[in-house]
Amino acid sequence: MCRSAGCLHSYPSYENEVFPDRREVAITMIGRIFRNEGSNVTTLERLHEYSMREIIFMGRSEFVLSGLGACLAWCRDYLEEFELQGTIQAASDPFFADNLAALQCFQRSEQSKSEFRLAIPFSGKSISVASMNNHGEHFSKSYNIRFANGRFIHSGCFGAGYERIIFATLSQYGYEESEWPEKLRGFYFSQGPGRALIA
Question: CA 147 → CA 25, 36, 65, 83, 156, distances in Å?
Answer without folding.
Answer: 13, 36, 17, 43, 16
